[in-house]
Amino acid sequence: MSLKIEVTTKAPGYHELVLDGKLDTETHGQLDAALKKLPVTTARGVRLNLARLSYISSMGLRVVMKLMKDLKAQNGVLQMVNVQPQIKKVFDIAAALPPETVFASVAEADAYLDMMQKKVLRGD
Q: Which domains does the chain have, with CATH numbers?
């Protein structure tokens, strides 16, 4: 499955990106490219609408975390809205992991995140 990204400017310096599909190893570059087209360096706020995002991998998480870091450095704000439960679980895990947590590979990290998202979808 691919990733579809709808970008709109809500007001000068405020942008919204609606993500539809999977944000993973194969598609994270699409989000990175869309963000590079925005004037993120002068953005005051970016909203990610995740209502139609069904999956996120460690590479997708990395792009979002970089965006958050870049916005914070310039006193901008990142908002994430309509976050699906399995996606929220990934962000909860990322926030709860100690900084020294290490996975042997991207594949191992993605396998862990995949397992956790499937548990949420099953209701475990």
A: 3-122 (3.30.750.24)
pLDDT tens-digit series, residues 66-102: 998 888 888 888 888 999 999 988 988 887 555 545 5
Q: Give the separation between CA 116 and CA 114, rounded to whole angstroms.
A: 5
Contacting residues for 26 by C-beta, under 8 A, at least 6 apart: none
User: Most distant CA pair in the chain: distance in Å?
Assistant: 43
Q: Give the pLDDT score at 13.
A: 84
What does pTM read for this prediction?
0.79
> Distances from the Cα of 27 to the Cαs of 10, 11, 31, 53, in angstroms?
25, 27, 7, 12
Angle between helices 106-122 and 85-96 in degrees, nearest 10:
130
Exposed, middle or buried, 31 (CB in 10 Å: 0-12/13-18/19+)? Answer: buried
